[in-house]
Amino acid sequence: MSYEPTKEEIGLTKYLPSSWLDEVLPAPQRNVNDFIHRLEDGGWIMMPKDEADQDEEFWRTTLAPGDIVAFSVHEWYGWMTIHVNDDGSVDDGEVPDKANCLCLGGEVETMVDNVNDLVEYGAGEPLKPGSYDITAYYWADTEAHFRFVVDADGKGQFEPCAAALLARPATAAEGSAE
Asked: Quick one: what percent of the chain has pLDDT higher than 90?
């Protein structure tokens, strides 16, 4: 159960519930509503879209109207090659500036946030001159927050909401709804 993006997904913005971030991930989705599933008893659950990942209990979250879920924003840039030159300089023209997760040979244990660190630390030691295949992707530093709602027709969906609602209740000086 690990997310293996396709070539068609390169550069597409996708979302994954932040609480699910780990070394092994289900596939992020373009639409946060793709994680919503209606149970036979009428309840709601958030789980991966791909059937192969749906049995993993860690990725099953009960939903109730009003629940706010934090999502991490992700873009995958694919496999690319960097070249370490004899003088230590690097040709990395394919690596997008936005990429903040780079892995040597796709191995998550080698993850760094920039090409220079990848060359310096490699797989435990500096990379020698030569060509190296890497994966590059982006995870946003901030989360996108969505509130789960059920409309009059009984359809469950996420609606964007302000992250400040999660942070703390309003103080007396700011006013409150009480």
From this structure: 65
